[in-house]
Amino acid sequence: MNQDYITADQWSIIEEGFEKERVQSSESLFSLGNGAMGQRANFEENYSGETFQGSYIAGVYYPDKTRVGWWKNGYPEYFAKVLNAPNWIGINVYVDEEALDLNTCKSVSGFRRELNMKEGWYQRSFEATLPNDVSVRVKATRFLSLDLDEIGAIRFEVTPLSGDVTIKFVPYLDSSITNEDSNWDDKFWNTTSVSSEGNQAFIEAHTMKTNFETCTFMQSDLLHNGKAVHAEPSVIQKELWVGHQYEHKTAKGETLSLQKLGGYTVSRNHKADALIAAAKEAMKNASSLGFETLMANQKKAWSAIWEMSDISIEGDVKAQQGIRFNIFHLNQTYLGRDSRLNIGPKGFTGEKYGGSTYWDTEAYCIPFYMATKDHSVARNLLTYRYNHLEKAIENGEKLGFTDGAALYPMVTMNGEECHNEWEITFEEIHRNGAIAFAIYNYYRYTGDYSYIPEMGLEVLIGISRFWGQRATFSTHKDKYVILGVTGPNEYENNVNNNWYTNYIAKWCLQYTLEQLNKVKEGYPEDYDRIIGHTGLKEFETEEWETIAGQLYFPYSEEHNVFLQQDGFLDKELVTVADLDKSQRPINQKWSWDRILRSPYIKQADVLQGFYLFEDHFSLEELERHFDFYEPFTVHESSLSPCVHSIQAAKLDRMDQAYTFYLRTSRLDLDDYNKEVHEGLHITSMAGTWMSIVEGFGGLRIVEDKLSFTPRIPKEWEAYSFKINFRNRILKVRISHEDVSLELEGKEEMSLRVHGKRVVLAPGKPVSV
Amino acid sequence: MNQDYITADQWSIIEEGFEKERVQSSESLFSLGNGAMGQRANFEENYSGETFQGSYIAGVYYPDKTRVGWWKNGYPEYFAKVLNAPNWIGINVYVDEEALDLNTCKSVSGFRRELNMKEGWYQRSFEATLPNDVSVRVKATRFLSLDLDEIGAIRFEVTPLSGDVTIKFVPYLDSSITNEDSNWDDKFWNTTSVSSEGNQAFIEAHTMKTNFETCTFMQSDLLHNGKAVHAEPSVIQKELWVGHQYEHKTAKGETLSLQKLGGYTVSRNHKADALIAAAKEAMKNASSLGFETLMANQKKAWSAIWEMSDISIEGDVKAQQGIRFNIFHLNQTYLGRDSRLNIGPKGFTGEKYGGSTYWDTEAYCIPFYMATKDHSVARNLLTYRYNHLEKAIENGEKLGFTDGAALYPMVTMNGEECHNEWEITFEEIHRNGAIAFAIYNYYRYTGDYSYIPEMGLEVLIGISRFWGQRATFSTHKDKYVILGVTGPNEYENNVNNNWYTNYIAKWCLQYTLEQLNKVKEGYPEDYDRIIGHTGLKEFETEEWETIAGQLYFPYSEEHNVFLQQDGFLDKELVTVADLDKSQRPINQKWSWDRILRSPYIKQADVLQGFYLFEDHFSLEELERHFDFYEPFTVHESSLSPCVHSIQAAKLDRMDQAYTFYLRTSRLDLDDYNKEVHEGLHITSMAGTWMSIVEGFGGLRIVEDKLSFTPRIPKEWEAYSFKINFRNRILKVRISHEDVSLELEGKEEMSLRVHGKRVVLAPGKPVSV
Q1: Is B394 on the interface with A (CB under 8 A)?
Q2: What is the pLDDT of residue B69?
Q3: Between helices B375-387 and B389-398, what is the axis angle to 10°?
Q4: Could you give phi then psi for residue A22, rounded to 5 degrees?
Q5: Mind listing the domains of chain B with CATH numbers?
Q6: Is B575 near chain A, with CB under 8 Å?
Q7: Choosing among B431, B494, B565, B590, which should be mutated to test the A contact, i.e. which has the most A CBs within 10 A?
Q8: Are B465 and B471 in contact (CB under 8 A)?
Q9: Do A591 and B72 touch (CB under 8 A)?
Q10: Nearest Cα to A419, choosing from A409, A427, A428, A429?
Q11: Tens of pLDDT along A411-420?
C-alpha cells in the first residue's frame, strides 16, 4: 500500500484536506465516465499546480507513428493513442478580478471531494482566501449523464465570505490540448471552427489522420441565490478557445452559480456536417429537463445499475468501498450499448497503454458483464471480435500465416494490431486462446448457443488455423511444439513451449472440432455457409486432431508440476520472499535481461491455465502448482492478484485469499503499484468482481447449472451479490452462518450449494 | 549477385555508361575517405535525379533520441547517429546560363567513372548536350589527401564542343544538410557563421547536443587551358550557404577548369575559436604545393600503403578487383593514427547502423591491421577499449552488475552504449568475449606482451567480473548456465546457453586467471597497481575458476555436435537448400517471430567459436560442426561468408571456399545483399582479407611462429601477400606449383609450411 488518504465509506470516495501532491492521484480516482466520454477529475477553474489534464471520447484515437530504431517486418504501422480531447469542463473564476487558483490561494480550508458512486456524481467544496484577501466558499458538482450520453453538467457555486465582491465566471471550451505521452510533438487535433451563439459555444475539431470529426460544446446559465440571472455573456474568442464572460456583484453570504452543460457530438454517431446541430439538439433536450431533473435521472440510472451489479459487504468498510469502486468504474467505462466499443485498460482515466482492446476483455471482463447485465452486452463483446475476424486474418498474413489463419491483435482499436514490441505483438499469441475461451464461456454461462453457428465458429476456425500453422513438429521430441512465445507472464519472452499457450492451443483445436460437429448436426445450413465461406478442408481438421493429440507439455518429474516453459528449472529459484524488498517492483528496478532470466512471474501463467480450465485438474494438482508458482509471483500486473485470490479461496486459504482480494480491489485506491496518477486499472476491476463471486462465493457452472461453494473471510460479517444467470436473477447472501438464495422471475431454478442440490422457487428465499 | 555493371579491372573500379538507377549504388562504391573524413561519390554539380548525399567527419556524431514505445530500464539515452556533414564538394556549373544537370541533359555519352585504388583518386568524365543544345566535355577529378588529412582537392574541367560559350562555375559550401535516416525531423547542425574572403569561404557549424565545432572551408582557382586566371569571384551568401561565382568565355575546344580545395577543421583537433585560422593554414599548406604536387604525394602515400597491404591475385581479375576494393576501403576508413577513432561499419559511405565501434573491430578487423600496419595501429584499437573501461563498468551498473563488472557496449562512439534493442543491447553479451580475445590475439601475433600489464589485464578483470556475475547456477543441471542471451547469430534472441557465448565466457575466465598469474610473476609492480585499482578479491578468482570448470555446454549425442543453444533441435530442421528461394533473404521476407523459431543462422555462431578457438578442436570436429550448421546458414550478415570461406579452405573444400570468397570480396560490388545504395560493409572487408591470408594461405601462429598451410583456388594462377609479423616483413606467393617466401629486414625467421620447418634468411627467397 503506497497511499492511504481516501476516507473509508460505503458508497463514496472521499478526500478531505487539500494537498497538492495528491492532486494527480485524485484526478484519476475521482474520474467520471458514462461509456461514451469521460474525464479525469481536473478542476474546472484554472490550476497552476501539477496536474494531468485528460478528457476522452470513446472510440476516438490517433494512429501514432510506431517508429522504432530497428524496424522488423510485420510491425504495425501505428500505435493507437488514446487522445486527450478538447476540454469542455473549464470555468475560469475571478473574484474582484483575482483569479481563483488553488495553487496560489493564501489559504484553503474544508477542502473535500466526494465521488458519490451510488448516484453517479462528483462534488468538490472548499473555502479559500485568494491573494487579494477575499474569502469565498466554493462548491462544484459535476456528472456525466447516463441517459443523455453526449451531455455532462456542472454547477459551480461561489459564496463570498469576507464581503461584497464582483464574481466573474468564464466558462470555456479549449482545443489547444496535447497528450502527456506525446512523444514526437505531433499535433493530434485540427480545429476547424470556433463559434459562439448566445449562451452556447462550439468548437469543431477533427483528429489528424483518423479524421474523427467532433464538436465540443457548452451552454451556460448564471444563477444568483438559485434564481436565473438573464445575462447575455460577452464572448472571448481565440484560435483554439472560446469563452463566455459573466460578471455579477454578489454580496457576502449570497451565492452566485454557473450552470454549465457541455460535451461532445462525434461523427461516429452523427453526420460530420451536422455536429453543431446535434450539439444544439442535445443541449435543448438537457436544458429542457434542467439541472435538477438531469441529476434526478442520473440517480435513477445509477440506481438501476447498482440494483443488478452491487456487491455489498457487511462489517468491512474498506473492502466494501473497494468493490464498489471497481464496479462503479467498470460501468463508467463500458455499458455495452455500442458494439464498436470495448473496455480500454485505462477507461476514461488516462492515456497509458493506448488502444481499447486487450485479451483482458475476454479473460477478465466478460464474466462480470455476463452476470450483471443483459446477456446482449457480452454478446456485443463477442460480436466485436467477429467483426474483426477479417483484420485478424490480415494480421496473420502480415506474419506469414496463410489460408485464413487468424491472429487477433494484442492491442487494437479497429481490429488492426497497434502495438510494436516484437516479443508481445508477434509472440504473445495466447490471446487467440482467450478469445476462443470466451466463446465457450459465453455459451456455458448464458446457454445462448446461437452465437456459435452465427459467428463464433468462423472465429474458432480462424484461430485453429493459426494454431495449426504455428505449432511445428519436433523430430527430436517426437511431439508438436510451439516455439518462440510470450505467455501471460510477460517477464519471459521468446520461450519455447509455454505450458499455458500449448494448453490453450490444444483446447482451441479440440473445441473447434467439437463445435464443427455440433453445428454440422444442429445447424446444417449455417455449417454449409461457414464451410463455403472459410473453405475449410478435411486435411485441416485432421491436422488439428493430430496436433492436439501430440502436443508437448513441459513437465518436471522432480517437482511433479507442469513447467511454465522449457528450461524453467535452469533458473536461480529464489522465491519472492527471499528477494530483497529494495529490488521491488522489479519492473522499475531491474533491466529487462535480468527480469527475463529471473524466475519471477508477473501474473498467473501456468495458474492462468488452472483458472480457465479448473475442471480439468484435481484440487491436489491445483495446490501443487499454486505452491510451486505463487512463491515466484511478483504480481506486478494488475491482473494477477484476482486469479490468485480465487485459487487461494478454492484451496481454503482464506487469509491469503483476503490479502489478494484487498490488493485487487484497492489496487488504485491504495496505489499498490505506484502509478495511480497515470490513471486507473479498469480491466482488472472485473477480476476483483470475480474474486468475490467466483473466489469467495465459489460460483461455477457445473453440468449446465449454477454451483456455489461459499466461503467468507473472517473480517466480514456477510456479503451479497446478484447475478443474471440465463436471464434469471439470483440474489445470494453469504454469512458465517448460512447462505441465503433468492430468485426473481417466474421459473424455478435448480442449483448446487457445497455440492448439494437446491431447488429455488421464485420469490421464496432459501437459506442453506 | 544482384548487379554486374562494374568493369573488371586489376586496380580500378570502373563504371561505363550513365544509368540513373545506378547512381546511388555508384555513390557508395566510388566513395572516398582518408581516415579523417570522407564522402559518397556525389556529383559536384547539381543533380536533380535520385541521389543519396553524404559527407562525413570522423568522430563527429549526434546523440539521437532512442525513444521506443515501451521503455525498458537500462536503455541508453541516445543512439549515436553518424551525421551527414556540411558539403564542401559542390560546384554548380552553368553553360550559357544553362545549369549542367545530368538528370536533364538531352544526351550523355562517354560517361565513365574510375576509382583508381592504386593511386587514391576518383575521376568522372562524360560528354553531354544540355537542354540549350550546347555540348560540353566534362572531367572531374577528386581525392582526399592522405598527407594533409583536412584537405580534399577537386579539378573540374569543362570543354565546349559545340561552339564558344560562357561557362560559370559556382563552387560552394552548404550546411543545410540532413540525414536520410532522420526520424524525428530533428535539426542536427547549428550554423554559426558563413563568411567569404577573397577566393576562400568558411561555414562554422556545430552539432546540436554534442557540440562538435567544425569549420567547412573551400578555396577556388580558375584555370583556362591550364593557366591560372586571376579573377576575383563574386560572392553569393545565404543563411546556410556560401558560393563564389566565376564566369569566363571559353572557345570551342578550349578547357576551363575550376580547382577547388576544401575540407573540415574540427574542434576535436583544434581550439574551437581557431577553426577558421586552422582552415586557412591547411589551405595555405595545400595551395603552396599545388594540385599536381598534392596528387603526386597522394600517389606516393597510397603506394606506401599498397606496398605493405596489397594482395595480388593472378589469373582472376574479378577476384583481384574484389580484394583490392576491400583493402582500399579499409584504409580509407581507418588508418590507425588516432586512438579516439574506430572502424565504423559503413565508414564514410553511409549513415546506417550508427556508432563507430562494434565487436567487428576485435573479431574481424584487428588481424588485418596487425598484419598490414605497424603494430601500434592494433595497439591503438586495444587502447581505445582500455580508455572506455570505466564507461563499460558504468554500463554494467545500469544493467544491475556491481563491483567493477564491465559490459562493453554493443555500439558506441565514446564508450557509452548507444543501441536500444533489448535483445541486442542487454543480451548480445558475447561482445565482451571478443574484446578479451583480441587482447590474446594481439599478443599471440605481435609478441608485444606490454599491453597486458599496462592496460589489458584491467580490461580482462572487468570482463571476467561480468561473466562471473552473469553466469548463474542451475541446481537442476548441477552446472553453471548463462541464460537469456543473443549469440553472434542474431536470428535467435533470449536463448539459454548459447554455446559460443558460454565457450568464450569460460575462455575469458581462464585466460584472465592465467594473465593474473603471469603479470604477478613477471610484472609485480603492475600487478600491485592493478589489484589496488580494481580491488580484486581472492574469492572472485576462486569463483571464476569454479564457474569455468562447471559451465554447461549444450550437446547433442545424436548428432555428435555442440548445440547452438538449449532446444535448438526442437526446430523444424529444414536446410537452406530446401527453403524456397522466394523466401530469401528471410530478414526482408519474414516477420521476426518466424525468423526466431526457424533454424536459420544469420552468421557463424557455433562456427565462430570454432574459428576463434580452432586449435581447441580436431579437424573432424570442425568438419562435423561445419556440416551440421552451414546448411542452416543464410549468410545474411556481411560477416558470415569470410569465416565459412576460411573453414571450407581448412576442410579442403576449395570450390566452396572460393564461392564464399567471391561473396565476401564482391559483396558490395555485386550487391549480394541488395543494399549497396545505403553504403558499403566496411568491417566485413577485413574478413575478406582473412579469407585469403588465413583461409587460402592457411596462416596460423603455432608455438609463437608463423605457420602456413597454403591452398589455391583452381580459378587462380597464383596469389601473393605481405605480412608484418613481429616487425618483420614477409612476402608470400602461392601458386599451384609452389610457395615462395621472402623476408625483408635483418633477422632470420623460422616458420612452418604445411607443417614443415623452413628457416628464412632476409633477402633470400625460398621456394617450397
Answers
A1: no
A2: 52
A3: 40
A4: -90, -5
A5: 6-305 (2.70.98.40)
A6: no
A7: B494
A8: no
A9: yes
A10: A409
A11: 999 999 988 8
